[in-house]
Amino acid sequence: MMAARRGRSAGLIRLALYGIGLVPAVVSFVLGATNRLGADPVNTFERTLGLWALRFLILSLCITPLRDLTGVNLVRYRRAVGLLAFWYALFHLSAYVALDQGFDLHTLLADVTTRPFIILGMVAFTILSALAATSNGWAIRRLGRRWKALHRWVYAAAICAAIHFILSFKVIRVETLLYGLVVAALLAFRVYRAAPRRAKAPPV
Amino acid sequence: AVDLAAQPGPLSGEGLKPTPLRDVTHYNNFYEFGLEKTDPAERSGDFHPRPWTVRVEGMVAKPRTYDIDALLGRKLEERIYRMRCVEAWSMVIPWIGFALRDLLAEVEPLGSAKYVAFESVVRPSEMPGQGGVLPVLDWPYVEGLRLDEAMHPLTILAVGLYGQTLPNQNGAPVRLVVPWKYGFKGIKSIVRIRLTDRQPRTSWNVRAPDEYGFYANVNPAVDHPRWSQASERPIGAGGGFFGASRQLTLPFNGYGEQVAGLYAGMDLRRDF
């Protein structure tokens, strides 16, 4: 009975996570649709969505180090956070395609084939799509051991997304570098953990 | 801001609807005050555009130092120009100013002068963006024009907009406006104008030469490496997301008839 109650409260927390997680998107959409998002609303909306995609992606990468370093185990919420990252990436891409470029296929095609900055964003989105599509119980059972290997691609997505963010401004900004550093630190933690523990090499 | 008397200029664009004043003064780039478009309006309150002088020197017969009051006392014109930012957004701004060529004529450029170099003020105590953790640009901001571009009647020194002296955030007290070039060529808060025989260094070209050329003519056929320049988002249409869709960017920002001749025989893909 205790387990059932814990399961139910985890479910409620997950639901609340989706609800709260989508607040920035809803708020900025309403502001933008009612002309309260500044002088360049489409650009502001696009950037807001992209930034939240990166934030949720980073949050999803924090869960393992948090568990290993502090013992706080939030792994049961990781799927929700990861899916939020995917949804924001999808909104970000949709805003760019529909609101910003007005479905101008010529420009969009040139963008995704010639501009490294856009290509990085698309690579990140493609990976997140694959991960979102296989984030259900059926796919986890079906893929077995390969599921874990597939979901390690989230590291590549984070690297691409961080560089995409850094390159989205005309100059290198402190803010974008900080996001990049956080991603680097989270990945470095994994590399460090995965490295085989060896005895110190004897002095030559 | 002080009211300025100005004649409507004959070179204003026909049928252009000016962007609302609020957007012109609250959405722009002026990295001396910060990187966000809202920074210039929010962080330029400590800036003192007076007293002010502009030194005009170099390869000229009569170098001169102009006081800002003398510049404001000149015969001023209103010029309603399109403004196209290299970031693919655009405005229409009713500038007040005078033709740069009139000022240059007074200092009598020497035959050897081929270019005009401009320099902005450096005042880290009044311009918070000139400090900062990461170097953004080398200060002072510098820009340049070929002499024939500088002498073109469309090229003005602006001292006001919307009938008043320039707000700090828009480049007070005097700035350059070259309507057929990307906005970053319009150097703000000018303290020095120097005529020279060598192509001057320009801030953005030094920062990223593959992204920003010396000429920086508005050109829908030459993309920025990270985005297309074929179209632009007009600012200030109102209506939020659904107020205004992108509009096509015009060669030379719509001033091709007047200025294309300056570049006859040049490969504008190379000299972008």
UniProtKB/TrEMBL annotation, chain A:
It comes from the Bacteria. It is found in: Cell membrane; Membrane. Part of the MsrPQ system that repairs oxidized periplasmic proteins containing methionine sulfoxide residues (Met-O), using respiratory chain electrons. Thus protects these proteins from oxidative-stress damage caused by reactive species of oxygen and chlorine generated by the host defense mechanisms. MsrPQ is essential for the maintenance of envelope integrity under bleach stress, rescuing a wide series of structurally unrelated periplasmic proteins from methionine oxidation. Heterodimer of a catalytic subunit (MsrP) and a heme-binding subunit (MsrQ). Binds 1 heme b (iron(II)-protoporphyrin IX) group per subunit. Binds 1 FMN per subunit. This is Protein-methionine-sulfoxide reductase heme-binding subunit MsrQ. The chain crosses the membrane at residues 12-31, 51-69, 81-99, 119-140, 152-171, 177-195. GO terms for cellular component: plasma membrane.
